[in-house]
Write a structure and sequence with these properties.
Number of helices of chain A: 26
Strand content of chain B: 5-15%
CATH class of chain B: Alpha Beta
Mean pLDDT of chain B: 85
Number of strands of chain A: 22
Number of domains of chain B: 1
Radius of gyration of chain B: 17 Å
Strand order of the largest sheet of chain A: 1-8-3-6
Largest sheet of chain B: 5 strands, mixed
Structural class of chain B: alpha/beta
Distance between the termini of chain A: 61 Å
Distance between the termini of chain B: 10 Å
Strand content of chain A: 15-25%
CATH superfamily of chain B: Ribonuclease H-like superfamily/Ribonuclease H
Low-confidence stretches of chain A: 143-147, 491-496
Number of helices of chain B: 10
Shape of chain B: globular
CATH architecture of the domain at 461-616 in chain A: Up-down Bundle
Largest sheet of chain A: 4 strands, antiparallel
Mean pLDDT of chain A: 82
Helix content of chain A: 40-55%
Number of strands of chain B: 6
Order of helices and strands of chain B: HHEEEEHHHEHEHHHH
Structural class of chain A: alpha+beta
Shape of chain A: globular
CATH topology of the domain at 461-616 in chain A: Four Helix Bundle (Hemerythrin (Met), subunit A)
Oligomer: heterodimer
Largest interface: A-B, 26 and 25 residues
Radius of gyration of chain A: 28 Å
């Protein structure tokens, strides 16, 4: 039997992937380890050498100088390196230098291979590229969490399976009798095999009794016509987001054949998750005065914390926060219209940036604009100026603070006719320069919120078409993406920024999320895809064969992973009553999280590298 | 200056010993004084004692042999030593070695030959080397009637040489010394852990010395 070296076995027990080994394996391993000391500045392994050791950083830090370029990766305590050379039979590709006084544990190659054979998790840890490691990290996290909004099918949440229905010709009295007899609160209105509307208890109260309508009237006149529907295999998350942004509580679900299979109510979802986002969405939709809207909107950060605490995943938390943001924007426009009177002409309120991508978290500023119909006359300008100003002010009061870059309906630049907008985009696209690109990328993430959707859609379609035929513009986009400073490895001085309080931090948004967004946007626009969300873009790229499916999935995973960390970070800040930011101090992360983060950085770096090769190569 | 001369003279006299372990010790392949410190054979050694008295009993021994700049743990060894002594309460609390365990340990007369054989041809490395030297020589005197000569390097003395201006004796203790070289914190008062800790400190110190420093330059500093 083997007597362990206590200090080493103890260290291995808290260091991935060695934590996955049995006590006996760790004890045996601790005996085979060699300890080495490397003074700051000395080389540990050199490119071209033969290596037969796996190295673990016990204390200090090392820097991997990646072969073939200027990139370096920094590894701190608990990190492993030099295993790629073991996997390919010895030759070292990356020179590794101690950048601090460093104590190393070296595991002989034969032990390394034996452990890969005997322990699947150990093997997985080293066999995989960074991409696969992130996928596993996510899977582990999601399995650890409880209810999975994104996996659960909406159809399965309906507690009553058979919807009760009647044709729109039915009298209100008969319809209500039917509801009473079948004990349902929601009625589906069906005509010639198609769903034409729904009618709920509340509609009876508000539209019939309170309005003093006779019960002999037709149900078709008081129902909610052409309700939004989802298919039964939509996720609970989708249903929840739809309710949250639309401010309603019932969604008819259609089966594959398009037939009504049931009506999902907010209560069904609440019963499954216990989440208040829908309530908030409903309250936003119901707000009748600016004061009411502001009151509800200010509760969004709190609702966000509740979501995160109840184990809602990053993607969902972003989606709900975006859905609530969308609802607030729409309501702000409606209230502004109510104050100023009917608009003299058609217009659309559009949003840009994170809200457009449905990737908003709390603490975002506002980015919006008005698209006016081309026939809008000079004299209508003052109405839209007032409207834009009112919307921006209202949003600011709601917590969507003024955009520092001035991208808001308040400013004349952001209120243009469709033709005016098209010209503006055409300028960016046909005559790109670095400075312009920097300010313009946000405009290529755009979404319709309120008003005449055809205006927004036409602008979007034209923009996408223009970009597709402009390789020069795409190359500028790519170059812009390449400017982002992705950390080169783990958290040692050089890669960190200094926060206001002097702490060393890493900017999760700027240094990890933005590059992924940029990568997806550049590829998507180059391919002429009209998706706006980053995940939607990545999936569409894979679907269209424009990006390797694994690469797309990995980037999606990496974004999700960093967002999870970022969201957990922000939820903690909101809880402490602090303003939410994206500056994460590395020492608040577990060694495992840091490992995954390193993988994410590495992945982003190679995706940027691919971007450079594919799009920026000519001029960068 | 004369340390090596005294050491070799003592070795010569051991060659006539009645005890084969001592004869083997004397005849081992000892490194030369001009051997590079980064290439020599060492044995890092630590004893846990039941007090600081001159006649304190050995409770535990930990050692790890290493060559040059790599500490291989394959032959690292830890052993509890049986002691019939009344255990001094305070010391026992520090080391966590109770009377029970001490009574179950190996007999000193079995441990010492093993240790002597391991030390043969190797330079002893310890933090506060005098304690290990004294305790081991007291044991060999009791068992063989002779003080075994020990070629030792004291990391504490070396540290005072490398960092002469530190204030207070605390600064030269094992933990604080290691800290200065970026070495991790270890749980103290386990003989083997302390031996490994001293070996690592020695590595760190070696990295601060000229690459061609010899054993001769390191002894008795």
């Amino acid at each position: 039997m083997t007597v362990e070296i206590a200090e080493i076995a103890g260290f291995l027990e808290r260091t991935p992937p060695f934590e996955a080994l049995s006590d006996a394996e760790r004890a045996a391993l601790s005996r085979t380890i060699e300890v080495r000391y490397a003074r700051s500045g000395s080389a540990i392994v050199t490119a071209g050498d033969q290596n037969d050791r796996l190295f673990i950083v016990r204390s200090g830090a090392v820097e991997l100088r990646l072969a073939g370029n200027d990139l370096t990766a920094r590894l701190a305590t608990g990190s492993t390196f030099a295993y790629p050379s073991l996997l390919r039979g010895g030759e070292v590709h990356n020179t590794t230098v101690a950048i601090e006084d460093t104590l190393l544990y070296a595991v002989p190659a034969d032990r390394f291979h034996a452990l890969r054979d005997s322990c699947p998790r150990f093997r997985k840890f080293f066999a995989e590229g960074e991409a696969a490691r992130i996928a596993h990290a996510l899977k582990d996290r999601q399995q650890a969490a409880g209810f999975q909004l994104d996996r659960e099918m909406a159809g399965k949440l309906i507690r009553r399976s058979m919807p009760v229905s009647c044709p729109s010709e039915t009298t209100i009295a008969d319809a209500v009798q039917l509801m009473h007899a079948r004990d349902v609160s929601t009625l589906a209105i069906y005509d010639e095999g198609a769903l034409t509307g729904i009618f709920t208890d509340k509609d009876l109260r508000n539209r019939v009794v309170a309005a003093g309508l006779p019960l002999e009237g037709k149900i078709g006149d008081v129902m909610t016509p052409s309700p939004l529907t989802l298919s039964t295999d939509s996720s609970a998350a989708e249903a929840m987001a739809l309710m949250t942004s639309g401010g309603f509580r019932h969604i008819p679900l259609l089966d594959e054949a398009g037939a009504l299979s049931g009506i999902l109510s907010a209560t069904d979802i609440l019963a499954a998750v216990g989440n208040n986002a829908i309530d908030l969405g409903v309250m936003i939709a119901r707000a009748r005065t600016p004061k009411e809207l502001i009151e509800v909107a200010r509760r969004i950060p709190e609702s966000f914390t509740v979501m995160v605490d109840s184990g809602v995943h990053a993607a969902q938390a972003m989606r709900f926060t975006s859905a609530l943001g969308e609802a607030v924007h729409r309501k702000a426009a409606q209230l502004a219209e109510a104050e100023l009177g009917e608009p003299p002409n058609r217009y659309a309120l559009v949003v840009f940036g994170s809200l457009a991508r449905e990737e908003q978290l709390v603490g975002s500023d506002q980015d919006n604009g008005l698209v006016l119909a081309d026939e809008t006359e000079e004299k209508d300008g003052s109405y839209f100026e007032k409207l834009g100003t009112r919307i921006s002010d209202l949003l600011d009061d709601c917590g969507y603070v003024y955009c520092r870059g001035g991208i808001m309906a308040k400013n004349a630049d952001q209120r243009q006719t469709l033709a005016g907008w098209c010209d503006r985009y055409a300028q960016w696209i046909s005559r790109p320069d670095e400075d312009r690109i920097l300010r313009a990328t946000i405009f290529f993430d755009m979404r319709h919120i309120h008003g005449d959707a055809s205006l927004s859609r036409r602008l979007h379609e034209r923009t996408v078409a223009l970009v597709k035929d402009s390789p020069l513009f795409v190359s500028y986009l790519a170059r812009d993406a390449l400017r982002s400073k992705v950390p080169l490895g783990i958290f040692r001085n050089l890669v960190l920024e200094t926060a206001d309080d002097g702490q060393r931090v890493f900017d999760a948004k700027r240094q990890a999320i933005m590059p992924i967004i940029d990568i997806a946007r550049t590829h998507a626009l180059a391919a002429g895809l009209d998706e706006v969300g980053t995940v939607a873009r990545l999936r569409a790229l894979a679907q269209a064969g424009k990006m390797n499916r694994d690469d797309a999935q990995s980037l999606e995973d990496a974004m999700l992973l960093v967002n999870e960390m970022r969201i957990a970070h922000q939820a903690r800040q909101v809880e402490r009553g602090e303003a939410a930011d994206n500056l994460i101090a590395p020492d608040t992360l577990s060694p495992l999280e840091r490992d995954y983060l390193k993988d994410a950085f590495s992945l982003i770096r190679s995706a940027l590298e691919a971007l450079r090769r594919n799009f920026a190569g000519g001029i960068a | 200056m004369f340390a090596r001369w005294r050491f070799e003279r003592a070795l010569r006299s051991l060659r006539q010993s009645d005890h084969s372990v001592l004869r083997d010790y004397a005849n081992a392949a000892w490194p030369q004084r001009d051997c590079r410190a980064t290439e020599a054979s060492y044995l890092a050694l630590d004893f846990e004692l039941d007090g600081l008295r001159k006649d304190a009993h050995l409770l535990q021994a930990g050692w790890v042999p290493f060559v040059g700049t790599t500490i291989s743990l394959e032959e690292a060894h830890s052993v509890d030593i049986r002691s019939s002594a009344e255990l001094d309460d305070t010391a026992v609390t520090i080391h966590g070695i109770g009377e029970q365990r001490a009574a179950n340990g190996q007999r000193l007369r079995d441990v010492v030959p093993e240790l002597i054989a391991m030390l043969a041809g190797r330079v002893m490395v310890a933090h506060g080397e005098a304690i290990e030297r004294y305790a081991l020589q007291r044991a060999t005197r009791a068992l063989y009637g002779v003080d075994v000569p020990i070629w030792g390097i004291c990391t504490l003395v070396l540290e005072k040489h490398l960092k002469p201006r530190l204030v207070g004796s605390q600064a030269y203790r094992l933990g604080p010394s290691r800290h200065r070289y970026g070495l991790p914190e270890y749980r103290a008062h386990d003989a083997l852990t302390d031996a490994i800790a001293a070996a690592e400190l020695f590595q760190a110190q070696l990295s601060r010395l000229p690459a061609d420093a010899t054993l001769g330059q390191l002894e008795r500093r």
